[in-house]
Amino acid sequence: MPPALIRDLSDTSGYWAAVWTMCAMPDVHVIADAPVGCFNLVATAVPDYTDAVPHIENMTPATITEQEVGGKGTSDKVRWTYENLRAGGVLDGKQVIVISTAESEMIGADLSSVVATLGEGTRFYWSNSLSEDEWAGRDRVLRWLWEQFGAPHGAGVQPAPGTVNIIGPTYGCFNSPSDLEEVKRLIIGAGGRINLVYPMEATLADTPRLAAAQVNVVMYREFGAGLAGMLGQPWLYAPFGMRETTAFVREIGRLLGTSEQAEAFIAGEKRTTLRAVWDLWRGPQGDWFGTTDVGIVAGRSYAEGLARYLGDELGMKIAFVSARPRRPDDPDNDEIRQMLHRRAPAFVFGSINEKIYLSEAGAKFARFFMASFPGPTVRRAVGTPFMGYRGAVYVVQEIVNGLYDTLFNFLPVDQAYSMMRGGPPKIEAAPGNLPWSLEAKAVLDDALEKLPYIPRISASRQMQMQVEALARERSLKEITPDLVREALANAGM
C-alpha cells in the first residue's frame, strides 16, 4: 500500500511551539540551535502576518551551517552565539534557554551538558521538532516551564481567594487578543480577579505565582490542560456560545463563592450584549439559520465550540467538522478538499487551506470566514471574539452579513452603464414563456442544488431568464439540456 500523501500541512512543530511559548515572556532569551532561515520564519515572517509582531526580539539563532550539520556539531556555534550576546549586554536580566530544532535533532545535538558551561542557570530544551506537532509541543513546554521555574519555588504558595489564572495565550494562537479580553471580562463579571495570564502577559519570574490562583481557566482544548492538572486547583475551559458561557460564569461563581455576582452579570448580559443575538436569530433573518449549512476546519477549541454553538444552539446544518490536532474520525486536508470541490457549504470557517480549496472549486457562492491559522490574516484587534457572550454576538453578526453578501450576487443591477461600455443588453423577458424539456429542467435543478439554500430562488429565476434569452437569440422553440449546460457554463456554474 503506497504511503498517504500529506497535503497542505496545517500545523507547525514542537520547535515553533517552544519559540512561541517561551518568547512571549520578556525576561527569557532563546538561543535556537538553528540555521538562520529556520529562525527567520518562526521569529519574523509568520508572527508578522498573524500576530502583527514585526520581530520576536528575544530570540537569536546559532546560525548553524552545513559544516556543523555535516559532522562538526553545533556546540561551538551555540557557545559563540552565547558569548557574543553576553558581551553585548543582550542577556542582562534574562533567563537563557537553548532549544533544539529539526536540523540539530537530525544529528543528535543534545546540548544538555554544553549549557552548563555557558552560564549559571542556562537551560537546554529538546523541542522534539521532528516528532511533535505544535499542540503537543505547547502543552509540553508549559509543563516544562512549571517544572523548571515554577514548582521549585511555588510549593509553599497558598491560593488567594477569588483569583483566577488564564493558561494558554501564546504567539501564533488564532484570535487570541480578542478572545482573551472576553474571557477576562467573563471572569471579572463572575466576581473573580485575574492572577496571571500565562505566558502571554507574564514573565518567567512570575511562574511560581501560578500556584497562587484559586481557579485556572484553560483557553484552548488543544493544549494547556497538562499544566492546569499539575497545579492541582479546579480548572475549566474557556466557553463558546450562549449556553456554554452561562454555565462557565456560573461555575466560576460557584468555585469562587461569588454566585450572586455571577447571576447578576448573566442577567445583565441577557438584557444588553445578547440582545443582538435574539434580534437576529429570532428576527426576519431567523428562517435562514435552519436552512444554511456550515463546514468548520479549525483548532479543536474553535472547531468544537463553533459546531456546538452554530449547530446545537442556532440550529444550523453542520456539513462537516475537522479539528486540529485531528481527531480519529476527522477528515484530513485531502478529504476536505474533495468535499469542497463536490459541493461547498454556504459557509466555511477555516484556514488559508480551505480558502484555496474553495477558489480551486470555483465555489463563488460559498462564504469563507477565517477561523484558524495558517493564513495571512492579522488578529490583533480586541473587538472580534469568537468565545463568550460577545463572541456569540460577533459570529451571528458575521453570518447574517455573509447571507446578505450571498444574496447580493443575485440582485438585478442597472445595465445602463454596462451598455455604454459595450456590455450585454438588459434581459427584459420573464421566465416561463418557452417550454422546457424534463431533461433541461433536471440539469438546472441539479446545478441549483449545489448552491446555498438562501440564494437558490433568486438564482433559479436569473438562470431561467438567461437560458431563455439564449434560446430566443437562436430562434429555438424549446429549452434543451445542452442549452442549459451552456448557459450555466457562461455563468460560472
Automatic annotation (TrEMBL):
Pathway involvement of the protein, from the record: Porphyrin-containing compound metabolism; bacteriochlorophyll biosynthesis
NCBIfam families recorded: BchZ
UniProt xrefs under PANTHER family: LIGHT-INDEPENDENT PROTOCHLOROPHYLLIDE REDUCTASE SUBUNIT B (PTHR33712)
MF term (GO), any: oxidoreductase activity, acting on iron-sulfur proteins as donors
Residue stretches making up the Nitrogenase/oxidoreductase component domain: 15-403
SUPFAM superfamilies named among the record's database cross-references: Helical backbone' metal receptor
Record keywords, A-Z: Bacteriochlorophyll biosynthesis, Chlorophyll biosynthesis, Oxidoreductase, Photosynthesis
Name used for this protein in its record: Chlorophyllide reductase subunit Z
GO biological process terms held by the UniProt record: bacteriochlorophyll biosynthetic process; photosynthesis
Keyword S-adenosyl-L-methionine: no
UniProt-listed InterPro entries: BchZ (IPR010244), ChlB/BchB/BchZ (IPR050152), Nase/OxRdtase_comp1 (IPR000510), P-CP_red_C (IPR042298), Protochlorophyllide_Rdtase (IPR016209)
Species of the source: Roseiflexus castenholzii (strain DSM 13941 / HLO8)
Taxonomic placement: Bacteria, Bacillati, Chloroflexota, Chloroflexia, Chloroflexales
One Pfam family this sequence matches: Oxidored_nitro
